Amino acid sequence: MQNGTPFYQKKGWIITAIIGLILIILIGSIIGTANGLNKKEQNVEAATGEIQTALQNRADLIPNLVNAVKGSQGQESAVYGKIADARTQYNQAKSSYDQANSQDDKTQAMQRQDRAFNLMVSTINENYPNLKSADQMQTLMAQLEGVNNRVTYERKQYNQRVQEYNNRVVSFPSSLVAAMTNHQKLAYFQADQQAQQNPTVDFSK
């Protein structure tokens, strides 16, 4: 045995230090990856708020839309019954969004809001194809075009954020951390066929 600390003890300390350093690096990497996943998830939540705002801005035009048709054509109970049904569907979807406990539930509720509005527009288009393009209608069309474009833009932004997040969730080695921290893939905002066509109310035909 040499003077001072025995060699085998020094060797033990070195091994312990190396193991500790590896653990620190590993834990730091896990924490960093988890924080990265959380940030991506927060980006999705922010995009959710933006698209919901756009959907609400469009919904705010519904009374004007209905009143414009009333003013031009008068009351027709069958048609307004369909419009009322669509409004009910929208309100139910909005309530589902407000009460949603998960991101996917919010996404499904937003999709139902989108479909309900498109149903309303389709009902009006089908039953009032020959409305004249009065000033009120022209203003309404411009507003609808603007909010529809906003919904389309925010939907694309939302899906991009979801894709960035999902890529982290499924890619190695972050997928291991995602499994440990219960980060799961999120659903994309799937617009229905009418929404894909960016519906507008064209009363000038």
Keywords for this entry:
205 residues; mainly alpha; disordered C terminus
Overall description:
- It is a single chain.
- The protein has 205 residues and is an all-alpha fold.
- Helices cover 78% and strands 0% of the residues.
- The chain contains 7 helices and no strands.
- It has helices spanning 7-59, 62-73, 77-99, 103-127, 135-170, 174-180, 193-196.
- Helix 1 (7-59) runs parallel beside helix 4, helix 1 packs antiparallel against helix 5 (135-170) and helix 3 runs antiparallel to helix 4.
- The relative contact order is 0.15.
Helix content: over 70%
Helical/strand content category: mainly alpha
Overall geometry:
rod-shaped
- How many extended strands? 0
Give the amount of beta strand, in percent: under 5%
Q: What is the averaged pLDDT score?
A: 81
Largest sheet: none
Tally of separate helices = 7
- Listing every helix as H and every strand as E from the N terminus to the C terminus, the arrangement reads HHHHHHH
Radius of gyration: 27 Å
Give unreliable regions as ranges.
195-205
Distance between the termini: 102 Å
How would you sum up this structure in a few lines?
By secondary structure, the protein is mainly alpha-helical. It has 7 helices and no strands.
